[in-house]
Amino acid sequence: MHEDQRPHHGRPPTGPYSHDHPHDHPHDRTPYGHRPHRPSSHRRRGRGGVGRLGLAGAVTGAVGIAAVAAGIVLLRPDSGSGGPSSEPSVAGEGGSGVRIAAVPAPKAGPPLNVTTPEGYGYTLAAIRAGTDRQPLGATQAPPSGTTYAYADYVLTNSRRRPVLLDFPADLFMPKAGIPASARERCMPQAGIPDDMCTLPNHSKVTGRIGGAGPPIEDEGTTMVPPGASYVVRIASDLPVEDGVSSGDLRLYVWNARFTRDRKGIGLAFP
Questions:
Q1: Are the C-beta atoms of 159 and 224 separated by less than 8 Å?
Q2: Closest Cα partner for 205 from 123, 103, 67?
Q3: 0.85 cut: is pTM over it?
Q4: What is the pLDDT along the chain (270 residues), one digit of tens a residue?
């Protein structure tokens, strides 16, 4: 993980709907004061009018309360009404809508289990490493005499619930194989041999292993379904010299999000 693989802070806690808030319904009360003296017949008619007005007000109030209650029922989320749902939807690759192809299980090295502070669990296993002028498709060609470094590994959600799509592994290469123009950008890390460093890079899911479901989008966060395994490719953003070989490249997990002692843990290739 490097510059554009900043650690995430987990899934957002809020849902698509806010809590229902009670609505106050004040009742109008007619103030009563002293009335001027009138003949008895007028007083009887006045009492009858007040009674009718009171009954009409009560009916109107009941109808108003019922209408408000009906409005609350209509505005409340109902998964069976065909309205919006909080169920996560299938996420396209990189948000582009391109689906990730299913691939057979590759040969991989021994697995490594890591856990984040939020309780997300991942299993990693290295597949291969190498160099390519376009390791992640059409990109700007590197200068003459240079190429890009990459590595593939298996990323598995080891939990029985969705976990954040994260990329724990980082790609390291020998300092001696870095062009002078990029040497200051190649960073060493604690617990990793001093002659190795990591260039700015980015990672991408390139395949779904077996019957694994694709990543899912849940409230704007990309998640990995329970038990799903993906092939991830990590590639350098800056070139290395042509002389760098697959045997020179290494995968390490070093970020404190995945290792408590902040020391690099290597992933062995098969």
A1: no
A2: 103
A3: no
A4: 554 444 444 444 333 323 333 333 333 433 434 444 444 433 344 444 444 444 444 444 444 444 434 443 333 333 333 444 444 445 444 444 557 999 999 999 999 999 999 999 999 999 999 999 999 987 788 999 999 999 999 999 999 999 999 999 999 999 999 999 999 999 999 889 999 999 999 999 999 999 899 999 988 999 999 999 999 999 999 999 999 999 999 999 999 999 887 789 999 999
Both tokens assigned to 95: 């948000």
Q: Which residue has the tokens 């109008």?
A: 28
